[in-house]
Amino acid sequence: MKNKGWLLDMDGVIYRENHLIPGAAELVAHLVESGAPFLFLTNNSAPTPSDLVVKLRHLGIAGLSARHFYTSAMNTADFLAETHPSCTAFVVGEAGLNSALQEAKIPNDSIHPSYVIVGEGSPTAEKLIKAHELIEKGARLVATNSDYWCPVKSTVTRPGAGALAAYLEASTGQRAYYLGKPNPYMYFRARRLLHRQTHEVMMVGDTMETDIRGAIEIGMQACLVLTGSTKLGDLTNYVYQPTCVMESVAELLAELKGESTDRMKSPALAMQQPTPHHGGDRIPSVNPVASRPRPAMTR
Ligand SMILES: [Mg+2]
């Protein structure tokens, strides 16, 4: 665990419904104090890193700066700046996406853009119609992430960037390219940001389809926490499995402090064993109850 770098998802890991998850503030404080390299890795392309600093400060986590955040908007800007430096873009998104593109020196273009870029937000019908027209004229469609919906409260969701991109895919017949988690490029760039400080990185997230899938596909360790969207009983539905499963970041903090000895073992493996592993049953009982049918979070 020593000298390990950390990529932390936010919603469902650090907070839920504008409430900190127990142990989150203490974990971040521990990482800051110990000098462990870490980044918050979020698919939400609407806020800027500075916005996220303020959000976490209001929730009770201080001592952070913009450099601690890497968003899908920044990932999209990095990708286009690296693969097509002279490109222009028509943006369907919020401040976080606009500022990331500005930082990457990708100009706005509403006449003949190289790309229509779709992020989180609530665009007007006029904006979507304009995006449709530009794609029909030759612009390529890019989305900051593939999330169809995003959690607002435990029983409330909102449409995500993936849903907006799907709208334009349907109207134009053009397929979007999706950045953000689980695209390995998100992890590649985030790991590069941590590389000067460490070579071993672990992703901590609450969603199998995004957080865990992308990490596993790039060969990175992945820790699933059960405080968000994925329940323990869901794990058997996936081909890929997290390196470890924890009830919350409070367990991760205990591990980092040396207060626990075997919580980094994979409960996915333990689940398949007929009896609990030595040390007692640390796995919460599985009682998956579907509140209502919902489409997959991401494609
Ligand atoms: Mg999450």
Itemize the secondary structure elements and their pairings.
Layout lengths: L4 E4 L6 E2 L2 E2 L3 H11 L3 E5 L6 H11 L9 E3 H12 L5 E4 L2 H9 L11 E4 L6 H12 L3 E4 L5 E5 L2 E4 L1 H12 L4 E2 L5 H11 L6 E5 L2 H10 L3 E5 L18 E3 L2 H8 L10 H5 L28
Parallel strand pairs: 1-4, 1-12, 4-5, 6-7, 7-8, 8-11, 12-13, 13-14
Antiparallel strand pairs: 2-3, 9-10
Bound molecules: magnesium ion.
Main attributes of the structure:
globular, Rossmann fold, six-stranded parallel β-sheet, 17% strand, binds magnesium ion, alpha/beta, 299 residues
Can you walk me through this structure?
- By secondary structure, the chain is α/β, with parallel strands linked by helices.
- It has 2 domains: 129 residues, HAD superfamily/HAD-like (Rossmann fold, 3-Layer(aba) Sandwich); 106 residues, Rossmann fold (3-Layer(aba) Sandwich), CATH 3.40.50.1000.
- The chain contains 10 helices and 14 strands.
- The strands form 4 sheets. Strands 5-4-1-12-13-14 form a 6-stranded parallel beta sheet, sandwiched between helices. The protein has a 4-stranded parallel beta sheet with strand order 6-7-8-11. Strands 2-3 form a two-stranded antiparallel ribbon.
- Strand 7, helix 5 and strand 8 form a beta-alpha-beta unit.
- Helix 1 runs parallel beside helix 9 and helix 3 packs parallel to helix 4.
- The longest helix has 12 residues.
- It is globular, with a radius of gyration of 20 Å.
- About 6% of the residues have low confidence.
- It binds magnesium ion.
- Magnesium ion binds next to loops.
